[in-house]
Design a protein that fits this description.
Elements (H helix, E strand, L loop, with lengths): L1 E9 L13 E6 L11 E5 L8 E6 L16 E6 L8
Parallel strand pairs: 3-5
Antiparallel strand pairs: 1-2, 1-4, 2-3, 4-5
Length: 89
């Protein structure tokens, strides 16, 4: 799983028909301390996440196992909205 923050939307007027009606979001991975990492990914939203929310993202075959994504061409899916992160050292 990847911890990330929603930083924008991706609009694709022409895409695979199996993605019609699905929201694509731009996610920036973050550390457990909330610091931005230097990468981005596009993930399909399955939970109704919004701008600046912290989310859980799964990738690869796990993304295709998320609710409603079986047999869809996805590599990353948002499967949770994070309320808090607690790190115990």
């Amino acid at each position: 799983m990847i911890i990330g923050r929603i930083i924008g939307n991706v609009v694709a007027t022409r895409k695979d028909p199996r993605l019609e009606g699905k929201k694509l979001l731009l996610v920036r991975p973050i550390t457990v301390h909330g610091e931005d990492e230097n990468s981005y990914l596009v993930a399909i939203d399955t939970v109704g996440a919004g701008y600046r929310e912290k989310v859980l993202v799964v990738s690869g075959s796990s993304a295709r196992m998320a609710e409603g994504l079986k047999d869809r061409p996805v590599d990353a899916a948002i499967v949770g909205i994070i309320d808090t992160i607690e790190v115990t050292d």
